[in-house]
Amino acid sequence: MSTLTVSRHFVEASLSGAERLGLDSRALLQEAGISPDLLRIEMARVSSDQFSKLMQVIWQRTGDEFMGMGPRRARSGTFATMCALVVGCQTLEEVYQQAFRFSRLFEPMVSMELEIFGDRARLVTRIEGSIHDPDYFLRESILVIWHRLGSWLIGQPVELEKAEFDYPRPDHGDEYRHIFHCPLAFESGCTALTFSKRFLSAPVIRDKPEMRQFLKTSPADLLSRPDESNTWTGRIRGLIGRDFSKPMPDFDWIAQELHTSPQTLRRRLKQENTSFQEIKDLLRRDMAIYYLAHPEMPINDIAERVGFTEPSTFHRAFKKWTGVTPGAWREGERGDLV
Length: 338
Description:
Blueprint: E1 5-7, H1 8-14, H2 16-20, H3 25-31, E2 45-47, H4 48-62, H5 78-86, H6 92-103, E3 110-117, E4 120-127, H7 137-154, E5 160-164, H8 176-180, E6 184-185, E7 192-196, H9 208-214, H10 220-224, H11 232-240, H12 251-257, H13 262-271, H14 276-292, H15 299-305, H16 311-322, H17 326-334
Parallel strand pairs: 5-6
Antiparallel strand pairs: 1-2, 3-4, 4-7, 5-7
Helix pairs in contact: 5-6, 11-14, 15-16
C-alpha cells in the first residue's frame, strides 16, 4: 500500500491524447477508480495506485504507449521489448546505449541519447516529428521512465545533478521538485538530465525473472510510484512512518538513523529541493487523503491519526494543502459535489 499522491494536473494531462483520439475521459477515470467530480477541486490529488491504474487503462484503450501524444503510435509491448533487450547489458552505460539503438529503429524517433563530457553524463531527449503534448506530459514521462528504469536496473539511485527543460516553467512547475529531486532549469537549450559519470560503470544487477515481475506494473509504477529508498526524502518518509498519533522523530534522530550528520542531511535535502518540515507536511497531507478514501473512518479520527490534537487545526491545515475542507474532499471522492 502506497500513500504517495499525484497532483490533479498529471491526471488531466495524461488524458489529453486519449481525448484527442475521441475517448471518453470520464469513463477512463471511472475505470481507474477515480471520481471525475474529485477533479473539480483545483488542488485535488489521487493516490499513486489510482494513477498507476489510469496509466494502464489509457495504454489499453488507446493501444499506444505514447497515449496519443507522440509523433506516431507506439504499439503495446514496445517498452517491454526494450526492457528485455537491456536487462542483458553489463553496465548502465550499455543500457542507455542499447535503449537508444532500439528506439532509433522506429521513425519518427522518440528517445533519450547518452552524452558524456568530462566527469558528467547527460541523457538528452530526442524527439523527431511533431508531438501533441500541450501539458508536457509525454516529455516528462520519458525523462522519468528512463531515469527510474536505469536506477532500478543497477539497484541504486542515479542521483541527478540537474534537470533541464526546453520550455518555460509551467504552472505545475513546483511539482517537478518532488519528481526529479534536483536543481531545475527551464527555457534551456534542451530537455535533459545530468548526473555523475560514475553511475555509468555501475553493473546491471537485475535478471530476466525480476524483469518479468517488474513489467507486470511498469512503466505505470515508474511514473506514479518511485522507489522511495532512492532518495533522502523517501528514506525520511520511511523512518517517520505512518502513525502520527505517536510523537514524531526529531531531525537529529533521523540523521543518526541514516548514518549522517544533521548538517549533511540538511544539505542533501536542499539538493533535493525540499526540507524536513515540507516532508512532514506532505506526508501528513498524503496520509489524510488516504484515510479520507475510507468512508467508514470519521474525520475527527483521521485528524488524530495524522497527528492533530484539535480537529479544527486539522481542517485548517487540510484546507491549506488542498483548497477545500476534509468534508468537501470526501464529497468529491463520492461524486456528491454540486
